[in-house]
């Protein structure tokens, strides 16, 4: 049984690196960014509006659209789900590093201690001039969030389209130190995040596992491939009866 084999792999591991995507947070009621409706029926794509270029061209309209697409997350009316708690529990007896595409902060709220937010975080914004950081609560009501020190516009601390990826090499370094690479809830379609499993592929020291609702174009890279609902799969992994 794949489940039993994966359970044994995790039980014996000393260092696990986990890559997570939107599928990890959907059980918390957070919709997949790429399936968002409404805003993206306009003439331009979400990539256009959620880009660094558009932020600089029209920061006020950028903030309007940013708040609309991330309205559930900015309200913070969501909680970690069983998947987040499973990964926190996985820390018992081993070191676990999470590299996440998600910007919702739920891994930290579940108590995971080593989280690399590959695409940034919704939890804060920073001044474009002096660098002062502000929590998400401070930008909810502002039409154009601005720094109270210098008056300059704030920029959300998420990775916008067109921004350079700054954490890829750090992510690769963590994977290279792992016994197990566990990929969960991501279709691995967004580059360069989708290239990270190649760091472990072919390395006989690293066992690779992917758990996702649907097949991905990278399934061939993994030693173990499990398709199904994450919550149900993890429940089976915890059930040692």
Structural features, described:
- This protein has 241 residues and is an alpha/beta fold.
- The chain is built from nine helices and nine strands.
- The strands form two sheets. A six-stranded parallel β-sheet has the order 3-2-1-7-8-9, sandwiched between helices. It has a three-stranded antiparallel β-sheet with strand order 5-4-6, with no helix packed on it.
- A hairpin with a 5-residue loop joins strand 4 and strand 5 (133-135).
- It starts with a helix and ends with a helix.
Brief overview, please?
The protein is 28% helix and 19% strand. Strand 2, helix 7 and strand 3 form a beta-alpha-beta unit.
The N- to C-terminal Cα distance equals 14 Å
Any low-confidence stretches, pLDDT <50, length ≥5?
35-41
- Order the strands across the largest sheet as they lie in space: 3-2-1-7-8-9
Our estimate of the beta-strand percent is 15-25%
Structural class, by secondary structure, is: alpha/beta
Summed up, the helix count is 9
Please report the total strand number as a whole number.
Answer: 9
Q: Quote the average pLDDT.
A: 91
The description of the largest β-sheet is: 6 strands, parallel
Helix content: 25-40%
Order of helices and strands: HEHHHHHEHEEEEHEEEH
What is the element layout, followed by pairings?
Layout: H1 2-12, E1 15-20, H2 46-49, H3 52-57, H4 59-69, H5 71-75, H6 82-89, E2 95-100, H7 106-109, E3 115-117, E4 120-127, E5 133-135, E6 154-158, H8 168-176, E7 180-184, E8 207-212, E9 224-227, H9 230-238
Parallel strand pairs: 1-2, 1-7, 2-3, 7-8, 8-9
Antiparallel strand pairs: 4-5, 4-6
Helix pairs in contact: 1-9
